[in-house]
Amino acid sequence: MNDPASRVRIFDTSLRDGEQSPGCSMTPAQKLRFAHALSELGVDVIEAGFPASSETDMGAVRAIAREVRGATVATLARCHQGDIEACARALEGAVHPRIHVFISTSPLHREHKLGLSREQVLQRAVMGVELARRYADDVEFSAEDALRTEPEFLAQICSAAVAAGARTLNIPDTVGYTTPSEIRALFEYLRANVAGAEQAVFSAHCHNDLGLAVANSLAAIDGGARQVECTINGIGERAGNCALEELVMALRVRGEYYGAHTRIDSRRLVPTSRLLSRITGMAVQRNKAVVGQNAFAHESGIHQHGMLKHRGTYEIMRPEDVGWAQSQMVMGRHSGRAALSDRLQTLGFALDEAQLNSVFAGFKALAEKKREVFDADLEALVLGADKRAARGHRLARLHVSTGVNQDSLPTASVQLVDADGATVSEAAVGDGPVHALFAALARATGLALEIDSYQVSSVTTGDDAQGQASLIARVDGVEVTGSGTSTDILEASALAWLDIANRVLRTRAAGAAEPERRAAAIA
């Protein structure tokens, strides 16, 4: 689908509206780093900030304008001379600068926020657009609280903005009040009643107060919008904004229905989402569409059986297309024999029917006690059913100490037992107890892991709660996950590290043995 008329421009406001969300503030360096990520993702417009709000924001926008290429860099301003001039200074050096001016237009805002009449609001809007055009050819006009503005006045002020030089007209649902049918009808009305509408791109900016931001944005596209203002992970004021990843994939998966497309590289969605979470510290909920950990995870036995037959039975898009490595079969009390057998084969265990029956019985008993059964648990079940299947290192002893001054360094010592029953002991120092622990394990196994993510969380509640450590590591360019559970979080961390290490070592051993098996078969 290459028709220019069907392309929807993606205007990302994570660095402006998103950063205004409590808990999501970023340093200038973090904003620059994320702006580069947005450019790599393929967004059309990056709203870098509100320069008049602070010197910090001014500095961040300046750095982004100087360095980021491949996307339009926009700044926000009220229809005030000082705001607009601040935007112009901040955008010096930008290849594609845009000044985005706004003013409130609804009766509620006119009376209680601005204390202005319709005519005064109209005059300020025209002044703002005309002044912005002195500094930038690309000017966007927003009518704040547009969805609660009288339609005829909205058409009048948009007509005036186009006549003054605006080439993008943004119609924001500032408080997340509208519904899909209403916003679609409004865009159709404006396109028919704004003088010079054919000269402008209509844009939607929907908030999520009623959970309708994505639905409303899609309806606006139905009504003729060809720009959508959104954020990664849907961050933003109050309940947030339209989630970029959800909108993009809705247009991708339902392309024939909407007849619209974007230029977003969807394979960058998950990495960009994770980067934002690391920068802001705001985690994505597990069941978040597209980028949540459960978005491509299946636990139900019926679903898992269907997935093993054909992924299309329960997935409408490929995880690889949005940046996930693959779908996940989560092993829990709802999982069935087919999923267990497939997971054991992935872990390198080939069991006959009797062995599988024995392991499945143990798995069901364990799944009633644990929320999720991890690979290490499955390996332990198999080892209990067949001692000959024992492969990998087992943690026998662990000692970790930390230090709070220069006289004592964090140290860790471990003793592992390998598949043949031999023991190996190693120790190491580190920047902290976990760093020292992982260094000692690396020495003991001879395997270095590049850790991308390390998290510890509580599986249950209470003083005796188990800690669950989760690791994401990169080995030979491949992302591998591991987890461990214990009432001691350092032991859980060691088990998570060994979970990955044993899997990697077992896979390498299986690969090395394959040529020998083939040679034996030929002989």
What would you note in describing this structure?
The protein is α/β, with parallel strands linked by helices and 523 residues long. The chain folds into three domains: 7-280, TIM Barrel (Alpha-Beta Barrel), CATH 3.20.20.70; 297-389, no CATH class; 394-516, Alpha-isopropylmalate synthase LeuA, regulatory domain (Double Stranded RNA Binding Domain, 2-Layer Sandwich). The protein contains 18 helices and 16 strands. It has helices at 14-18, 28-41, 55-67, 81-90, 107-114, 118-135, 151-164, 180-193, 213-222, 244-253, 255-258, 269-280, 301-309, 337-346, 353-367, 375-385, 433-445, 489-522, and strands at residues 9-12, 45-49, 72-78, 97-104, 139-144, 168-173, 201-206, 227-230, 297-298, 328-329, 394-401, 411-417, 423-429, 450-458, 467-475, 478-486. The strands form four sheets. It has an eight-stranded parallel barrel with strand order 1-2-3-4-5-6-7-8, surrounded by seven helices. Helix 2 packs antiparallel against helix 12, helix 9 crosses helix 10 (244-253) and helix 17 runs parallel beside helix 18 (489-522). Residues 386-390 and 517-523 have low confidence and may be disordered.
Residue runs with pLDDT of under 50 for 5 or more positions: 386-390, 517-523
Second CATH tier, the architecture of the largest domain: Alpha-Beta Barrel
Number of domains: 3
Instruction: Give a short account of the largest sheet.
Output: 8 strands, parallel, barrel
The total beta strand count reads 16
- Looking at the structure, the CATH topology of the largest domain is TIM Barrel
Rg measurement, Å = 28 Å
Strand residue content: 15-25%
How far is the first residue's CA from the last residue's CA?
55 Å
Instruction: Give me the side-by-side strand order of the main sheet.
Output: 1-2-3-4-5-6-7-8
CATH class of the largest domain: Alpha Beta
Protein structure class: alpha/beta
Note the overall shape.
elongated
In the CATH hierarchy, what is the superfamily of the largest domain? Aldolase class I
Q: What's the pLDDT, averaged over the residues?
A: 88
Number of helices: 18
In helices, the fraction of residues equals 40-55%
